[in-house]
Amino acid sequence: MLSYLKSSLVATVWFVFLSFPFMVVKVNTLKNSVEWRWLNLLWVAIGAFFLSALWRWAMERRHRGGASGESAHADTPKLTLGERILNDRKIYRPLLAVLTAVILLFPFVFDSYQVSIMLLALIFVVLGLGLNITVGLAGLLDLGYVAFFAVGAYSYGLLSFYYDVGFWTALPIGGLVGALFGILLGFPILRLRGDYLAIVTLGFGLIAKIVLENWEEVTNGAKGIANIGRPGLFGLQMDIATTTIYTYYLMIVLVLFTIFVTNRIKDSRIGRAWMALREDEIACVAMGVDMARTKLSAYAFGAFWAGLVGVIFAARNTYINPNSFTFMESAIVLSIVVLGGMGSIVGVIIAALVLILLPEYLRAFADYRMLIFGAVMVLMMIFRPQGLISNVRKTYGPRRSAPEVNRD
Amino acid sequence: MTDQAEKLLEVRELTMDFGGLRAVDSITLDVSKGEIVALIGPNGAGKTTFFNCVTGIYTPTRGDIILNPPGEKSRRINGLKPNRVTTLGMARTFQNIRLFQNMTVLENVMIGRHCRTSTSIIGAVLRTARSRAQERETIDRSYDLLDQVGLLPFADAFAKNLSYGGQRRLEIARAMATEPFLLLLDEPAAGMNPQETRELDSLIMQIRNAGEIAILLIEHDMKLVMNISDRIYVMEYGKKIAHGTPQQIRANPKVIEAYLGEESDA
Amino acid sequence: MEYENFLGYFVSGLTRGSIYALIALGYTMVYGIIQLINFAHGEIYMIGAFVALIVSGVLTIYGFSGVSILVLAGLIAIIYAAAYGYTLERIAYRPLRSAPRLSPLISAIGMSLFLQNYVLLAQTPDFLRFPQLIPEIALLQPYAHVVGSAELVILITSALSMIALTLLIKYAKIGKAMRATQQDMIMARLVGIDVDRVISVTFIIGSILAAIGGILVGSYIGQINFYIGFMAGVKAFTAAVLGGIGNIPGAVLGGLVLGLAESLAAGYISSAYEDVFAFGVLVLILILRPSGLLGKAIKPKV
Predict the structure, then answer these.
(1) Which residue has the higher pLDDT, B211 or C129?
(2) Per-10-residue mean pLDDT for chain B, 266 residues long?
(3) Mind listing the pLDDT tens digit for each residue in A250-275?
C-alpha cells in the first residue's frame, strides 16, 4: 500500500511537471499577454495520482494473468462477458431479435437527422469490415485505406457530374474501381515488409487527397462536387426524409451482404491463405500459396468495400470534397478494426457503431473524441490486444468417412 | 538410361555466395524414386542454405537444380518461386518450426491443400457444388494426414499449443498435404526425446512406403540417419566431403574427423 | 538569374532536408534498436516547438530579450521534449516489448492522436505566431535571396547536432551500449548492459534532436499549430526509410535527398504537388532498392 502511495506521488509530480506548460500557461502572442490557469494543475495532480495507481494495479494484474494463462488455461482461454453472450444461444438469440427490431424500427422512431447519423455509422461498419480483411485477416497494415473510400465517392461524384450516371450504375462501378486501385497500389508494394508497407500506404492515402485537391480541372479541387443524386427507386419521386429512410434500409442490406460475403470468403481456401500469409509469409509461400496473388486479392477485396460504400457516402451527403478523406478517417477505420478485435466480424460492427455514434450523441464527448480514441488504442494494445471480441476460430465439424482401420 | 529416368531431383555444382561468403560450394546431389537420402554435417555446413536454394527461397549463384516430376517433363527450377516449386511436387519442412501459430492444427494442414484446389473468390461466395466438394475433400484429406502423424485429437487446437514434437509432426503433415513426390525434411527430430524420435523414424518409413514418396532429410540424430537412410551425403564448410551408404559413411575417416569425431566428444 | 534561382531552391532544399534528417534520426535510432516505427515521434517535435513558443512568450512578457530568450526557451524545450519522449516509451511501448509487431505500431498511432489532441485541447487549434528566435546576421544581407540567416543557422545547427550524435555513438559508453543493443538485444543483456536504460536514452536523444528541429522550423516558418508534427513526422519517416531504416548516415542522406527533391520539384514543376513528389521518390526507391539507399538487404532467416 505504501509503495503504491509512493509511486503514485512520484507519478503525480512527474505529470504535473510534464503538463505544466500546456495545461497552466496560455500565451497570447498577439496581445503579448499570458494567462495562468492554476486550477488545471489541481485536476492534473488528482488525475495523475489515481490513474497511476490504477495503471500500476492493472499492470500487475496483466503480469499475473500472462503467467497463469501460459500454463493452466492454454487451451481454454478465459471468455469475456461479450464472448459468453455470443456463445450462449439462450442469450444470443433474443439479443439478436431485439437488435434486429431496433435497427428495423429505427427510422420510424427517430427523425431524419438521427437516421442519417446511423447511416454514417453503418458506412463505417462496412469500411471496418473491408479493412478487417486487409489488416485483420491478411495482416497487411494499410494506413491509407481512406484513399479507396475517396475513389468510390469520387467515381460516383464524377460520373454523375460529367455523364449524369445514376446511383445504381455507379454502385458496382465504385466497388470495382476501388478494387482496381487496390490492385494498382498493391503491385509496387508487394515486396515490401510490414513497416515499409505502413509508410507507403500512408503516403498513398495522402497523395489521393492532394490529387483531389489540386486536379481542379477534373475534381473541382477543394470546392468539391455538389448535387450528387440520392439513390433512386424505379424513378419514384421521394422527399428527402423518405430517401434517407430508403438509403438507410439499403445500407442495412449492404451491411448484411458484406457480412455474408466476407464470412464466406474468410472460411474458404482464400481466407485461410490470407491468414497463413499473416502468420508466416515464408512458410505460406513454401506451402504452395502464391504470395503475389494472395496479397493482391486481399488488397483488392478490402478496397472493393471501401469503393462501394464510397458511392453511398457520396449519395448520402449529395456533396463531396477532399476534406472527408484525411488520415483521420483512415485512423478511425483502423481503430475500429483494432478495437473490434482483428479478424472478428461482430467485434468490428460493435466498434464501428460505438466509435461513430458515441461522439454524435454525447456532444460533450465530441471534443475529446480523438483524444480518447488515441488513449483507447494504446490501452487496448496493452491490456486487451485481441480486441473487444477475439476472433474465435472456426472448427470444421467431425471427421467424415474415416477409415476405421487406422484408429486404435 | 533407366537410371536417369528414376532420378527425381538432380542438383549439379550448386553454389551459393552471400557477399564474400561461400555457403554452399559446388554440391552435386541426387535423389531417386523411393529413396531416403540424408544430408548431414556439422552446424553451419550449409545444409539449410542448400535446402533454401533447392526450394526457391534463395536463388543460387551457380549450378543447376533439375526436378523430374514422375510422368512429366523435367525442368530446371533455379530461381523459381517457392510456391511454384511446391506446386511441382517438392515440399519441405523448416528447421526452426514455421507453423501458422494462430490457426488451428487442421487449418495448418488445409493450407497445404491450397495449391491442389482452385476455388476462386466467386466460387467461395456462391459456394458452388465444385467449391463445396473441394472443401470437403480438403477437410477429409487433412484429417487423414493428421491421423497419420497422430495429431487427430488436436485438430481444433491452435498450432502454437502443440508440444514441440507435435509441432514437428504437424510440419510434416502440412508438407504432405501438398501431395509431394519428394519431401525435404530439415532436422525433423531436433528437440525430440528418444521416444518421439523412434516414432518419427517409423513415420518417415511409413510415408516412404505408403506413398512412394522420396525423402531428403537434414538431421543431426545419427541413430535416426543410420537407421533409415539409403544413402548419405556429408557436407562441411559448404563442400561435399563424402557420399555413400550408411556403412560406407560410418567407415569414412574424413567423416569421422569432421563430424562423428565431434559427436563422440559430446 | 536562372542559376541563382537554382541556388535558392538548392539551399532551401538542403535546409528542409536537414530538418527532415534531424527528425529522421530519432526514427531510425529507435527502429534500429527495437524495430518500432515510433509514429508519435513527429508529436515530440511539435511539443518541442510548442514549449519553445510558450516559454519565449512568457519570457518576452517578463522583459527578457535577445539571446537569453533563445537559450532559455531552447533549453527548456529540449528538456521537455526529452521528458515526453521518455514517458512515451515507458507508457506506450515498454509494456509491448514482446507483443506482435502490429501492436506497438497501433499503440504509437494512438499516442500520436492523443498528443495532438492534448495540445489542441490544452492550448489552441489555431496557428500561433512563433517568435523570431534566430537573429538576423548582418553579414548575410547581400545574399539574402540565396541564403537567409535562418537557413544558415539551421544548416549549421543540424550539422553540429549530427556530428555530436555520431561522436556520442562512436565513443561514449552509452553509444557503445546502444550499438551492442542494436546488434543483439539478448546478448547485450547477458553481458550486463541495462537494455531498458539504453532504450530510454535512445528515445531521449531522438527527442532532443526532434526538439531542435522543432525550434528551428518554428522560427524559420514563423508559425506553428498542434498538427505540424504529423506531416513533419511522415516526411522524416519517409526520409529514414529512404536512406535505409536503422541506418544513421542513411537517415541524414535520406533527409537531404527528400528535401532537395521536394524543393526542386516545387520550384520547377508545381508546389501543390510537392508532397506527391516526396512520396513518389519514396515508392520509386523502395521498388528499386527495398531496403533503402544505404540499408543492407536482409535475407530472411529461414
Answers:
(1) C129
(2) 67 90 91 92 88 92 91 88 92 92 92 89 87 90 92 90 91 93 92 88 88 88 89 91 90 76 47
(3) 999 999 999 999 989 988 999 999 99
Residue C242 is part of a domain; what is its CATH number? 1.10.3470
Answer whether C300 sits within 8 Å of B57, measured CB to CB: yes
Task: Decide if C209 is inside a domain.
Answer: yes
How far is C-alpha C183 from the geometric centre of its chain's CA atoms?
23
Contact yes or no for A158/A218 (Cβ under 8 A): yes
Domain assignment present for residue C294? The answer is: no
Residue C168 lies in a domain: yes
Chain C residue nearest residue A208, CA to CA = C276
Q: Is residue C145 part of a domain?
A: no
Å from A51 to nearest chain B CA?
Answer: 34
With contact defined as 3+ CB pairs under 8 Å, the chains touching C are A, B
Phi-psi region of B150 (alpha: psi -120 to 50; beta: other; left: phi over 0): left
**CB of A147 closer than 8 Å to CB of A390:** no
Q: Is B82 on the interface with A (CB under 8 A)?
A: yes
Q: State what percent of residues in chain A have pLDDT above 70.
A: 86
What confidence category does residue A74 fall into, taking pLDDT thresholds of 50, 70 and 90?
very low
Q: Nearest C-alpha of chain C: how many angstroms from A202?
A: 8
Chain B contacts in chain C segment 271-300 (CB below 8 A): 299-300
Q: Report the topology of domain A110-383.
A: ABC transporter involved in vitamin B12 uptake, BtuC (1.10.3470)
Q: Is A41 within 8 Å of A16 (Cβ atoms)?
A: yes
User: Domain residue spans in chain A?
Assistant: 2-67, 110-383
What digits encode the pLDDT tens for the residues A318-351? 899 999 999 888 988 988 888 887 767 888 888 8
Helices (H), ranges, B55-127: 82-88, 105-112, 121-126
The alpha-carbon gap from A249 to the nearest alpha carbon of chain C, in Å, equals: 34
- Name the residue among A29, A193, A327 with its Cβ closest to that of C129: A29
| Rounded Cα distance, C200 and B25, in Å | 45
Tens of pLDDT, residues A127-183:
999 999 998 888 888 889 999 999 999 999 999 988 888 889 999 999 999 999 999
- Mean pLDDT on C227-239: 90
**What is the model's pLDDT at position C49?**
94
Residues 6+ apart with CB under 8 A from B170: B99, B105, B108, B109, B149, B151, B159, B162
Q: What is the dihedral of CA A28, A31, A33, A35, to 10 degrees?
A: -50
Q: Which residues of B touch C302 (CB under 8 A)?
A: 48, 52, 57, 94, 96, 98
Gap between the Cα atoms of A402 and B1, Å rounded: 42
Among A263, A279, A280, A299, pick the best mutation site for testing chain B contact (most B Cβ within 10 A): A279
Reading the block at residue C60, the C-alpha cell is 518576452
Calculate mean pLDDT across residues C229-242.
89
Count of positions (residues) in chain B: 266
Domains along chain B? 1-89+180-266 (3.40.50.300), 99-178 (no CATH)
Distance from CA of A40 to the nearest CA of C (A): 10
The answer to whether residue A404 scores a pLDDT higher than 90 is no
Domain count, chain C: 1
Domain region containing C222: 17-136+150-288
Residue A308 pLDDT > 50: yes
Q: Which chains touch B (3 or more CB pairs under 8 A)?
A: A, C
